[in-house]
Amino acid sequence: MAKQAVTEAPKSSLPAHLQGGKTRKFGNIDSSDLIIPRVKLIQAISPEVTEYDTAKPGEFWHTIAAQSLGKTLKGIPILVRKSYVLWSPRSDERGILARAVDGFEVRDH
C-alpha cells in the first residue's frame, strides 16, 4: 500500500510574515473569519467568466460582491506603515529617544 502525503491546512489566509501576530476580536469573530476583498482584471481564462454571466474579459471584478466594476477603475493607492516611537519618561525633557520608521530598524533620534 502506497503512503499518501499528509499536509496541514494553513492556519490563516495571511502571508507568512504576518502570521503569529496579535489578532483583534469582535465578539466571537476574529481575523480568521474575514476575507480580504480584491479587485481583479478578468481575463478569458479567469474562472469568474464561466461562473458568472456578468463577468466579461477585460473588466474589473470585485471578489466579495461578485460583480463587475466595468472596464475602467479609479483608485487611490494607500500605504499603511507600522512605525514605533520610544519616548522618554514624562518627567524627563528629552522627548523622543528612538524611532523605527519601518517597524524593524531602530534609529537614534
Written description of the protein model:
- The chain starts with 38 loop residues before the first strand and ends with a strand.
- It has one helix spanning 47-51, and strands spanning 39-41, 60-62, 67-70, 84-87, 96-100, 107-108.
- It has one helix and six strands, in the order βαβββββ.
- By secondary structure, it is mainly beta.
Apparent shape: elongated
How far is it from the N-terminal to the C-terminal residue, by CA?
65 Å
Q: Give the class from helix and strand content and strand pairing.
A: mainly beta
Mean pLDDT: 78
Largest sheet geometry: 3 strands, antiparallel
The run of helices and strands is EHEEEEE
Regions with little confidence, pLDDT below 50 for 5+ residues? none
Topology summary:
Layout: E1 39-41, H1 47-51, E2 60-62, E3 67-70, E4 84-87, E5 96-100, E6 107-108
Question: Characteristics of this structure?
Answer:
mainly beta, 19% strand
Concise overview:
By secondary structure, the chain is mostly beta strands. The protein is built from one helix and six strands. A three-stranded antiparallel beta sheet has the order 1-2-3, with no helix packed on it. Strands 4-5-6 form a three-stranded antiparallel beta sheet, with no helix packed on it.
